[in-house]
Design brief:
Elements: H1 2-10, H2 14-17, H3 21-40, E1 46-51, E2 56-66, E3 77-79, H4 80-86, E4 95-100, H5 107-134, E5 140-148, E6 152-156, E7 162-166, E8 181-192, E9 195-201, H6 205-215, H7 217-220, E10 224-232, E11 236-243, H8 250-255, H9 260-268, E12 273-278, H10 283-290, E13 298-302, E14 307-313, H11 314-321, H12 326-335, E15 338-344, H13 347-352, H14 365-373, H15 379-383, H16 387-393, H17 398-413
Parallel strand pairs: 2-3, 7-9, 11-12, 14-15
Antiparallel strand pairs: 1-2, 2-4, 5-6, 5-8, 6-7, 8-9, 10-11, 13-14
Helix pairs in contact: 3-5, 6-9, 10-12
Length: 414
């Protein structure tokens, strides 16, 4: 019963660690064999018998009987006198089996055993945790904010596992408080020493793809396929979808009546603007759809260089480029082509037009840059725009825009 009591004291924390008894016994055997090697030099002549049902174990030491005058006694040998203390009928050459009580190993050895056992169980837990989350890579996961730091948010799941959400994996508008529930995908699991570090991401294209699977039944059921996803986190995203069934409108199904289905996804991503387009293998049509809401006049494709010249009317250029150049950048990423915008317009007007940079003495450089971000880099291209529309699409005040337009009009009226 001494062994049983000791084992129970060693395994008192097994329930907290959620480790099964059989695994615990296997770890115990490994730990005890290491202790026997340390004390006796070898564990080859020791038998460890474990009963996982009872939680008991026995350690038996096998030794061959030698004469009392054998001075070079080894671990596997016992003198005749010592053997006869166990059983008086023993003779030289016979094998003796003697039970070893754990308490006989000494207090220091038992403390070392306990420490080694804790270490082995932690190692076992970490291995299982690493395997568990490796299988979850690419899946959506929810955890609670435990601690917010400048460069990272520490999350904890329902089982107490720690998950890391680095600043660069957060959407720019994300703001978390302790206790908030956070959704993201498990992006990677890295071993830091023996401890796995679980990394969550909210900026990955995979996160948006998985949100479509989670929120749109037809995507989850496989009736609609998400062919490609590109995004500038927190700003804009484009998602190409297709359907096996011609009766299903994949874009309509994803967006829903008045945007009802996509609204939840947009809200989850910090009001990220999501364009859903029909996928097609016709690259000209694909590029045309990708540049929505701009209306493309024509496209000239170079397959070798993976470049495409996109011809647009002057009033469509700024729509194609989008605020901050986001629309054309994402269209290029979605289609896999580098897109060059070619303006189509009134030849007389184009010849009479003036580059905006020519006004650098009267208009500040940062203002010129703001117009350039939405594809307006000439005087006439700005004068054709609606003031309210320019206020909405740039970071400029209405007064600033009106001042610029006044300067530009004077150029053509002079």
């Amino acid at each position: 019963m001494e062994n049983l009591a000791l084992i129970d004291s060693f395994s008192e924390f097994k329930d907290d660690k959620l480790i099964d008894r059989v695994t615990l016994m296997a770890i115990l055997e490994d730990v005890f064999r290491n202790a026997l090697k340390k004390k006796f030099g070898s564990d080859d002549n020791f038998d460890i018998i474990i009963n996982p049902d009872k939680g008991d174990m026995e350690i038996w030491r096998r030794r061959v009987i030698v004469a009392d005058d054998d001075l070079d006694l080894e671990n596997e040998e016992i003198t005749l006198t010592e053997a006869r203390k166990i059983e008086p009928d023993f003779e030289i050459g016979e094998e003796v089996s003697e039970e070893v009580k754990l308490i006989d190993l000494g207090r220091r050895a038992i403390l070392a055993l306990r420490q080694n056992l804790i270490s082995k169980i932690h190692e076992h837990d970490n291995t299982n945790l690493y395997k568990q989350f490796k299988d979850l890579i690419g899946d959506i996961y929810t955890a609670e904010v435990h601690h917010v730091r400048p460069r990272v948010v520490i999350l904890v799941d329902d089982e107490g596992n720690e998950i890391v959400l680095p600043k660069e994996k957060q959407i720019p508008s994300d703001f978390f408080r302790k206790g908030d529930n956070v959704r993201g995908i498990i992006e990677s699991v890295e071993l830091k020493g023996n401890k796995p570090q679980i990394i969550m991401s909210r900026t990955s294209e995979k996160f948006l793809e998985k949100l479509f699977e989670q929120e749109i039944p037809e995507v989850f059921d496989g009736l609609i396929m998400v062919k490609n996803v590109v995004r500038i986190p927190g700003e804009k995203a484009k998602v190409a979808v297709d359907s096996y069934d011609d009766r299903i409108d994949p874009v309509g199904a994803c967006v829903g009546m008045k945007g009802s289905r996509i609204h939840g996804i947009v809200r989850e991503l910090g009001n990220e603007n999501i364009d859903v387009i029909n996928y097609t293998s016709n690259i000209q049509l694909y590029i045309t759809r990708a540049l929505s809401p701009a209306k493309v006049s024509s496209i000239k494709i170079n397959e070798e260089t993976k470049r495409a010249e996109v011809f647009l009317k002057l009033e469509e250029v700024s729509k194609a480029i989008g605020r901050g150049g986001h629309n054309i950048k994402l269209a290029g990423l979605l289609t896999g082509y580098e897109l060059d915008v070619i303006r189509e317009g009134n030849i007389a007007e184009e010849e009479d037009d003036v580059e905006l940079t020519e006004f650098s003495d009267e208009i500040e450089a940062w203002v010129i840059e703001e117009f350039a971000k939405i594809g307006l880099d000439t005087a006439r291209s700005i004068l054709k725009q609606d003031v309210d529309d320019l206020v909405r699409r740039t970071d400029l005040e209405e007064e600033t825009i009106l001042d610029v337009m006044k300067i530009l009009k004077e150029e053509f009226n002079s």
